[in-house]
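Service request form, structural biology core

Requester: graduate student, group of Dr. S.
Request type: structure prediction, single chain
Budget code: on file
Notes: please return the result as structure tokens.

Sequence provided:
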Amino acid sequence: MLDRALLFVKDALDSHLQRSLSLPESVVVLNHLSTNDGAGNQKNQNRLIMTLTKLEYDTSRAYYNNSQSQNGQTSKNVPQFFNLNILISSNFDDYIESLKVLSHAILFFQSNNSFQRASYPHLPETLQSLDIEIESTSDAKSYEMWGALGSSYLPSVLYKIRRLMMDGRQIAGFQTPMREPLTEVGS
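Core staff response, request fulfilled:
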């Protein structure tokens, strides 16, 4: 669910930026800001980076009583809802270009703060809607976040995706990656 929601948002933002800025290629990546050794990530160069910075359980709903009645049946595994904080960072060699691309991203989310299936039929089947709002942070929290991410500050904005539903009843199965068949026989 997390991957599908974030990939959908990334693709929608990327399509908008390609159209509005007449870009010849994809500019948005869903990625870490730095590698495990603290070095910068080369895949992020001259890109707008979407990074999940926080995943929190949404406790504001009244239906968290661990059971749900439907058609006379009581289910113990009710859906859970999560809020996702995503950081949108602009990492271009030209600082003015960074600010321009970030500005267009902010404008995109300002005018597209709710993705509903009626308006976005390509919203993944497991998602009913995605509501996005800008998140304000104090300077202290911002410094703490950038330190925890292991990266130098980049022009950025923080958003919250509210109430992403996770429901285990929607899992149809797991796919494992295909592997090359072994063609050599040991002697």
